Fold this protein.
Amino acid sequence: MELSKITRLVSQFINDSDFNKVPEIGINRIYDQPLIAVASANDKLFAQLKNPDIIDKNHKNPKEWLEDAESIISYFLPFSAEIRQANKGDGLPAIEWLYGRIEGEECNKKLREFIVEEISRQGGKAVAPALSLDFKVKHNKSNWSERHVAFIAGLGTFGLSKSLITEKGCAGRYGSVITNIELQTTIRQYEDLYDYCIMCGACISRCPVKAIHEKGKDDKVCQQFIDEEIYTKYAPRYGCGKCQTALPCEDVNPNK
């Protein structure tokens, strides 16, 4: 199975899926066309994710999810202009963003399932860690980080807010599927963790609770705000995204 075919099928899914819209609040499109990249299951950077300074020892390598893993298909789903525009104001996050975060993640789950099914149909094996019963999140750290996988695959680099900045910006969601099919890997167009970040500090002033600073982000302060302020008010939806909108890196790579 060629990556070009996977790319075509994923693009078609995003174009046609009813999960990529929220008609009850007038969202015609949650995501625009995705970016897709491939990492090798043997990439040495995966071992580094077990470092407690990066994630922790519980982060699983690709072959711990799929014994004969060869490739990881990683993708970025950029939020549509209508969702990004709605969230550019100050104060609490826009309702459109919260729907994009929750209903959008449901679309992302369906896309993961779709990719796994397509690979199986072609005679390969595949697993989406985020759909597995073994997928765990503890203290804001998961045993399979979609953002770090995307960095390894060549999709982009981190910013001060810990968002990953791609060629289509940072406002969106990530996903990945591990397969035993060997695909051509994507060449990383960067070397440093922050190559695409221009360190402008715009995300610092955008954060409603000042969780972002010149040296990074306080995840505990961010999560407390989402749990106590947003989820309490908008349950079952939650999110914020202020540090991903109204920024130079919202929908482009600001270093290009």
Q: What stands out?
A: The longest strand covers residues 71-78. Residues 95-121 form the longest helix (27 residues). DSSP finds eight helices and ten strands in the chain.
